[in-house]
Amino acid sequence: MTTSLSISAVVLLAIVVFLLIRKSGLKAGHAAICALLGFYLASSSLADSISTLTTNVSSMIAGLKF
User: Fold this and answer.
1) Which residues are listed as membrane-spanning (predicted)?
2) Residue 9: is its pLDDT beyond 80?
3) Which pTM does this prediction carry?
């Protein structure tokens, strides 16, 4: 389940970045810097905390009843 969640999150974030570049005036350079920050955070000591946070938030969202 983690792999499908990761792929879905990547696709969702890519769509959001694309829309921000097209509609909100986000510059491609800014998006590239944000991506580099993500790579550096993934290899930092914060990676486990970020992973746990995103897992908990996705579980909370999945548990919402409409």
Assistant:
1) 6-21, 28-47
2) no
3) 0.58
